[in-house]
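As a warm-up, study this chain.
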Amino acid sequence: MSDSPAKRADAVEKRVEQPHKTSLRRRINRVAGQIQGVGKMIEADRYCVDILVQISAARSALNQLAMQIVEDHTRGCVRRAIHAEEGDEAIAELMDVLRKLTR
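Now compare it with the structure written out below.
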């Protein structure tokens, strides 16, 4: 299902240069490697607990990636919105995404 033109236009407007792009890429590569490792472990019929430990490590790395982006968003986008007197909207958006992240 594709986004409506209004949603796509809104997403384009909200593009932001990520201040820690190199660090974020490293974290993404680490998570991708861990996920590939899980696949290899399954193919190799590894012990279930070992696979679950690897999944836990990947989940933790993904959570750390998300928290770095949340921090950057709060220090950058939310701070700018507050100074532009658009803080309530930015805070509501942040709270919505935090609820999704913590499900």
